[in-house]
């Protein structure tokens, strides 16, 4: 399967409509280069470190951004992980919500971030936590499922019990979006590799670049195979990271090195 991870520069000084159009153009660019699965990063429209825009900018899960991303997935004929948005639920609560659309524009899955960052400030104070793990069938270019996929967002990676739960739900491919700070980039690389190795899964992790609320973003989007090898890694600036991976490698590695059969807890 050919994937593309878009390292998007989250510029909160840019008008929302311009950012939406730019994101859609990047998806088209990735699809034109042959991608079948495309990913955008966490809160690429609303920003991850300044809570002030969330109150005014939060949208319903079927709002303007979701509608554009759905149409973009259809126009490009790709599975689109549209990153995450600041979602305002009908009860007024705000969630960090990831949306995934298939090539027909159908919503394959959505995931409200469970672990909110901020230690009682920022996201942890303003956004509500999600309450469930999310898995779905990841379709190949012919629409036939090629892998059981799970969703995670940024800070989630520090909580391995969540990934064990996804593993127990059958996950073979993990799609993770983030706005990860540059000063902790080695944590990002180490933790993602650990999740891939210990659960014997593919990890595709797409991170933002640029500066948000004075915090430099890491970039360094990663694609890691179930053995822990890095198949592709982005740099620090805007780019599209392309990679081809074989979802069938998960079963091969698990059969050849059946460590998961020795679990006792």
Using brief descriptors, characterize the structure shown.
6-stranded mixed β-sheet, 265 residues, globular, 14 strands, alpha/beta, 7 helices, single chain, Nitrilase/N-carbamoyl-D-aminoacid amidohydrolase
CATH topology: Nitrilase/N-carbamoyl-D-aminoacid amidohydrolase
The 3D shape can be described as globular
User: CATH top level?
Assistant: Alpha Beta
Multimerization status: single chain
Question: How far do the termini sit from each other?
Answer: 33 Å
N-to-C SSE string, H for helix and E for strand: EHEHHEEEHEEHEHEEEEEEH
CATH fourth-tier homologous superfamily: Carbon-nitrogen hydrolase
CATH arch. level architecture? 4-Layer Sandwich
Give the helix proportion (percent range). 25-40%
Secondary structure tally, helices: 7
Q: What is the total number of structural domains?
A: 1
Beta content comes to: 25-35%
Q: Based on helices, strands and strand pairing, what is the structural class?
A: alpha/beta
Average pLDDT, rounded to a whole number, is 97
Low-confidence stretches: none
Tell me the Rg in angstroms.
17 Å
Largest sheet: 6 strands, mixed
The count of DSSP E runs of length 2 or more, i.e. the number of strands, is: 14
Give the strand order of the largest sheet, numbering strands 1, 2, ... along the chain.
5-4-3-2-1-14
């Amino acid at each position: 399967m050919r994937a593309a991870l878009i390292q998007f520069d989250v510029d909160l000084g840019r008008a929302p409509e311009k950012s939406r159009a730019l994101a859609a153009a990047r998806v088209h660019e990735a699809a034109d280069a042959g991608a079948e699965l495309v990913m955008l990063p966490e809160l690429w429209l609303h920003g991850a470190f300044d809570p002030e825009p969330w109150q005014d900018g939060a949208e319903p899960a079927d709002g303007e951004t979701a509608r554009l991303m759905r149409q973009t997935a259809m126009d490009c004929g790709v599975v689109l992980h549209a990153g995450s948005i600041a979602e305002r639920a009908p009860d007024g609560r705000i969630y960090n919500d990831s949306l995934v659309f298939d090539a027909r524009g159908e919503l394959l899955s959505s995931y409200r971030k469970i672990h909110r960052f901020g230690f009682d400030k920022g996201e942890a104070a303003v956004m509500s936590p999600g309450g469930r793990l999310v898995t779905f069938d990841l379709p190949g270019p012919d629409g036939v499922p090629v892998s059981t996929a799970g969703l995670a967002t940024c800070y989630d990676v520090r909580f391995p019990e969540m990934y064990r739960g996804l593993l127990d739900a059958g996950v073979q491919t993990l799609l993770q979006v983030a706005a990860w700070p540059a000063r902790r980039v080695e944590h990002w690389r180490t933790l993602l590799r650990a999740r891939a190795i210990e659960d014997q899964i593919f990890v595709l992790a797409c991170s933002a670049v640029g500066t948000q609320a004075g915090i430099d973003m890491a970039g360094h989007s990663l694609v890691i195979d179930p053995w822990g090898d890095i198949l592709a890694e982005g740099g620090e600036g805007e780019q599209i990271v392309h990679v081809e991976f074989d979802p069938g490698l998960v079963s091969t590695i698990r059969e050849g090195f059946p460590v998961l059969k020795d679990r006792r807890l």
